[in-house]
Amino acid sequence: MRGFTHRTLAGAAQSWIDARTAPLAEEGVPLIDAAGRVLTREIASPVDVPGFDRAMMDGFAVQAADTTGASLYNRLPLPVVGLLLPGHVPSTAVERGQAIRIMTGAPLPPGADAVLPAEKAELDGEQILVLDEVTPGKHVGQRGEDVVAGSVVLPRGRRLRPQDVGVLSAIGCASVPVVRRPVVQLVITGNELLPAGELPRGCLIADANGPMLASLVRRDGGQPRQPDIVPDRYDAILAALTADADIVLVSGGSSVGQEDLAPAILAEHGQLAIHGVAMRPSGPTGMGTLGTRLVFLLPGNPVSCLCAYDLFAGRAVRALAGLSRDWPYRVARLPLERKLVSVVGRLDYARVRIREGRVEPLAISGASLLTSTTRADGFVLIPEDSEGYPADTVVEVFLYDECPTAPCLNSSNSWT
After folding, report:
1. Taking the CB of residue 378, how many other CB atoms lie within 10 A of it?
2. Which residues partner with 333 through β-bridges?
3. The pTM is what?
4. Read out DSSP for 71-103?
5. Contact 329, 399 (CB under 8 A)
6. Among 47, 64, 63, 56, which Cα is nearest to 142's?
7. What structural domains and CATH numbers belong to the chain?
8. How far is the C-alpha of 288 from the C-alpha of 378, rounded, in Å?
9. Residue 39, SS3?
10. Neighbours of 120 (CB within 10 A)
11. Digit-coded pLDDT (tens) for 3-24
12. Is the CB of residue 290 less than 8 Å from the CB of residue 248?
């Protein structure tokens, strides 16, 4: 066993990642599966939406001029000469002095230029009595008012939201060109580990990192794959590292202990570009390449694993998936309740919670205490050139969830 002789600054490690990551190739996916994916091309509409003038209210299709002067005290009669329902092509035109009963969404018949709402008319046998005036175009949805044929509805690089998928459906887009999701192999190592969800027993502990990493990878646009727990054996770890994947995340065995085999295996069969980062927690983080794969060696301690994923591996997953490299966190700028101490030369990831509009530090150390993140509202990063912050300093809190009380702004990863 030996210590790290050199630790790479966090910013330099991110630069190494950025130089080796770009969006993956395009693939087509069915519309129903497109939400959350990133467009590789701009999408232009081949049609007008709507493709016809239509009624926006239940009522009567009329010529607006026939309602001039109508009021409760001057009821104007108009004979009703037909009925139009959504999805039916008009077979009767509206002539001067006539009305056609029409339902919301039905196409406006020829000759009509307005819809008189049902509540503005009174049925009288086979005619209506008009109780109010309407102007031309009133309560009519015009052809192409939502989308004009040939116009760009969504830009290249857009991460599709549910409403975006609705628009794509409205213009008849059945297959969507998107960035392929990176396949991320999760290699969870440790002879002391039980499969996720099993009750701990004796000296064995349940795997917490696997489910956590899988959730983070999905959040960042990746497709996680996780085999069984990998024992601390050279052959087992090598086989897991050579899986068919774009990125391999190794959890555990990343340091310099007797059973920390992954760094040596990566150095022997690929490139171990970085091993040891100047940060707390997550100091034993490593990264490199094996063939075409990016490999990240994440510490086994759960908080260290989370921190290393967020700062490094997640950045790579997002880049390959075509997303912004920046964190998907929001930021609250609030004063510290008490001082937050650090050491120059090391980036610190401090878990904090927010109480009555102030930031209360919880922990910087305690890399095995995952509940320190569940009790936290977010984290504060203390850069390498700082010894920390005194009480009342306004700091940026990167929020695990949206803050219920603090004003929030988009994350900019401004520490780098």
Report:
1. 23
2. 396
3. 0.85
4. BTTBPEEEEEEEEE-TT----SPPPTT-EEEE-
5. yes
6. 56
7. 10-24+181-320 (3.40.980.10), 26-48+154-179 (3.90.105.10), 54-141 (2.170.190.11), 330-410 (2.40.340.10)
8. 29
9. strand
10. 21
11. 567 899 999 999 999 999 999 9
12. yes
**Two structure tokens written together for 276:** 């040891």
Per DSSP, what are the bridge partners of residue 223? 183
Residue in the structure block whose two tokens are 């035109």: 93
Residue type, 81: V
Each residue's pLDDT tens digit, 156-212 = 999 999 999 999 999 999 999 999 999 999 999 988 888 888 888 888 888 889 999
How many residues appear in the chain?
Answer: 416
- Write out the two tokens for 381: 């990063």
Q: In the structure encoding, which two tokens stand for residue 247, read together?
A: 């990125």
Q: Tokens representing 207? A: 């795997």
For tokens 């990551």, name the residue.
21
Preceding omega of 50 cis (within 30 degrees of 0): yes
Question: Which residue, among 289, 296, 272, has the nearest Cα to 186 in the 3D structure?
Answer: 296
Q: What angle do CA 21, 27, 29 make, to 5 degrees?
A: 130
Location of structure tokens 């599709």? 160
Cβ atoms of 277 and 8 closer than 8 Å: yes
Cβ atoms 283, 8 nearer than 8 A: no
Enter the tokens of residue 298.
């994440």
Q: Are strands 247-251 and 271-275 parallel, antiparallel or unpaired?
A: unpaired
Rounded to a whole number, what is the largest CA-CA distance in the chain? 98
Radius of gyration in angstroms for the set of CA atoms belonging to the chain, rounded to a whole number: 31
